[in-house]
Amino acid sequence: MEQLFGPFVEEEACQEYLVVRFLPNSIPLQQRWRNTGLSADFLAEYWTTFFPAYDIPSRNRQREIRGAINYIANELLENVMKFSYQPANQPVSLGLYLYQDEFKFYASNAIDPAAVADFQRRIQTLLTEDTQELYLQQVERNAAGDSAGSHLGLLTMINDYGANLAWKFEGVEIIMVTTMVQLAV
Length: 185
Prior knowledge:
Strand order of the largest sheet: 1-5-6-4-3-2
Helix content: 40-55%
CATH class: Alpha Beta
Number of helices: 6
Structural class: alpha+beta
Radius of gyration: 17 Å
Oligomer: single chain
Number of domains: 1
CATH architecture: 2-Layer Sandwich
Largest sheet: 6 strands, antiparallel
């Protein structure tokens, strides 16, 4: 069974893409999430080579692209590893595809079937409510100590980087969720 939330677009053929996949075999994925920064740094550095820096404006553009890729990749990798459903024994992956005027990120992981409904409610909120207001509310909850985890990553992608997000849920016994992030360049 497949469910889509937001304007989800399947991966399309393109000349430039890079996919990293982590298997849960030797070290549990939840323990690896602490190292996501290394992978995000690599992805950001790799993709900036497609945006040469010849002068100050192009260096600034390259720096902005590097920062956006690094932040988004790090957040997505942290999420797929932290929320990967261990009993499913499925790999997590992050693919980054470069098109003419945008990047598309695809982050996939198995999800605990008991967590699907709550996650889908959160997604509906992100897609239908004012994300600036949601961000402020979450910052206030965090400051008051009313939240386990910051819950600011997806909101920051939308508010600070102008990213568009969508999700695909598929499967019956093992439910896989793919988060798609579109980022204009």
